[in-house]
Amino acid sequence: MSRVYNFSAGPAMLPEEVLKEAAEEMLDYRGSGQSVMEMSHRSKTYDAIIKEAEKDLRELMNIPDNYKVLFLQGGASLFFAQVPMNLMKNKKAGYILTGQWAKKAYQEAKIYGEAVELASSADKTFSYIPDCSDLPITDDMDYVYICENNTIYGTKYKKLPDTKGKILVSDVSSCFLSEPVDVTKYGVIYGGVQKNIGPAGCVIAIIREDLISDDVLPGTPTMMKWKTQADNDSLYNTPPCYTIYICGKVFKWLKAQGGLEAIQKKNIEKAQILYDFLDSSKMFKGTVVKEDRSLMNVPFVTGNEELDANFVKEATAAGFVNLKGHRTVGGMRASIYNAMPMEGVKKLVEFMEKFEKENS
Ligand SMILES: *Cc1c(COP(=O)(O)O)cnc(C)c1O
């Protein structure tokens, strides 16, 4: 068996310990005689799996009792619509545009009401986070929306925007569980799990209870009403059972690593290795302003498309896969989520050093 270092933005690497444990339990989950894939979501065994996953997540993130945790389907992209459907009482909300995912959420919200652009970093290919200290937020806005870590462009809010008392809704798909967060600062935190937590197929949403009600936009499908999901503990219909089971294992893995503070420390150290190299290299350059750099997604370029393509090709052959950057940025992108071992980043940097020597 030979595993590669997978720098994919998502679906992405999972901890090897988790995969091994899942493999061991594949045919017979703890004496049940079945795989978790084959199990009724109404069984006692499965109920214990989903309840324990929620309990561990609550512990990891220190989620207060007045927040619900929902396991949903449809990806982050379907959640873009659920936000206005459940929160747009005045049919008006503010959006900060820091990249493609924020823009898509903003465009989706426009279907349901007035989505106002509060700030944007489109002028410089989303290579920075705009100043959010005094945004043109008006009293009639229902919420302020951000994409907290911009997967494609590699930027991250280091400080949350001043929402002037409005509810903050945050897409944390690509920075979920990468560092401790103060849940009380948000109305809604959500993300697809396939970036930093588990396999594709599930969105985890952490929603303040008072934001969950029957007062939704007319025409909201039953499944997209948060109250339906909250009242049924995410078991209104069949949930993505196996994905939730793997997420549960990743939560246990994170706890064993020492929780989110320990993971943050490791993530800072890991990203620093790559950023330090980018700052010293004559060939490779980071594309993001230093103060807004993400710990999870690191885009970089050589400035020469042919060289970029050669690098990606040679890196792939050497076992560093999925390094090709998003087509709107070009160049390369290394996604170094929680499950990417330190060794993977060190070896990538060694490979980059070698490539630089050979090609200059
Ligand atoms: C990947 C991604 C999405 C889209 O997720 P899907 O689950 O594929 O819909 C949304 N937001 C962010 C920040 C992402 O990284």
Structure description:
By secondary structure, the protein is of the alpha/beta class. It has helices at 16-24, 44-61, 75-87, 100-109, 226-231, 241-256, 259-280, 305-317, 342-358; strands at 5-6, 67-72, 92-97, 114-120, 143-147, 149-150, 155-156, 167-171, 188-192, 203-208, 285-286, 297-301, 320-321, 332-335. The protein has two domains: 5-14 and 258-359, Alpha-Beta Complex (Aspartate Aminotransferase, domain 1); 16-256, Aspartate Aminotransferase, domain 2, CATH 3.40.640.10. It is 34% helix and 16% strand. Helix 1 crosses helix 6 (241-256) and helix 3 crosses helix 4 (100-109). The longest helix has 22 residues, at 259-280. The two termini are 35 Å apart. 46% of the residues are buried. The mean pLDDT is 97. The protein binds pyridoxal-5'-phosphate (PLP). Pyridoxal-5'-phosphate (PLP) is lined by residues 10, 75-77, 101, 147, 151, 171, 173-174, 192, 195.
The SSE string, one letter per element, is: EHHEHEHEEEEEEEHHHEEHEEH
Q: What do we call the CATH topology of the largest domain?
A: Aspartate Aminotransferase, domain 2
Most strands sheet: 7 strands, mixed
Named at the architecture level, the CATH assignment of the largest domain is 3-Layer(aba) Sandwich
In CATH, what is the class of the largest domain?
Alpha Beta
Task: Give the terminus-to-terminus CA distance.
Answer: 35 Å
**Helical content, roughly?**
25-40%
Identify the overall geometry.
globular
Count of folded domains: 2
The bound ligands are: pyridoxal-5'-phosphate
> What order do the strands of the largest sheet run in, or round the barrel if closed?
2-10-9-8-5-3-4
* Rounded radius of gyration (Å): 21 Å
- CATH-defined superfamily of the largest domain: Type I PLP-dependent aspartate aminotransferase-like (Major domain)
Number of strands: 14
Structural class: alpha/beta
The residue-averaged pLDDT reads 97
